[in-house]
Write a structure and sequence with these properties.
The protein is an alpha+beta fold. It has 3 helices and 6 strands. It is globular and about 35 Å long.
Length: 110
């Protein structure tokens, strides 16, 4: 499980790589994302104001949907699928495209 961690870090590739290395079968990635249509990673400054923010002030990275796919491809992931919303009874961040989840099957790409 990699839930709500990725976007609190200044880089995305290494933490994702470590998560994949620890996985036996599947990884559930749930993260805040930048709603951009293009594959980008937006950097921002985050202050540690409560439990939902970084543990210390610093740069954080918000990947877009497209960049998640590129990162996984770069890491040699076999398969991944964004988990579609099945209900409108979800937190606003999921509904407005600022958060998403993926089911990832680590392993060598075909």
């Amino acid at each position: 499980l990699n839930l709500g961690l990725l976007y609190h870090l200044p880089t995305t590739l290494e933490p994702l790589q470590r998560t994949l290395a620890m996985a036996r079968d599947l990884v559930l990635l749930d993260t805040a994302i930048d709603p951009a249509a293009s594959p980008i990673i937006r950097l921002a400054w985050e202050e540690p104001v409560d439990v939902t923010t970084a543990h210390r002030a610093g740069v954080v990275a918000f990947p877009s949907r497209g960049s998640i796919g590129l990162l996984l491809r770069h890491l040699g992931v076999a398969r991944w699928q964004e988990i579609p919303l099945r209900s409108l009874d979800m937190p606003p961040a999921y509904l407005d495209g600022r958060r998403a989840s993926w089911l990832i099957e680590p392993g060598a790409a075909p």
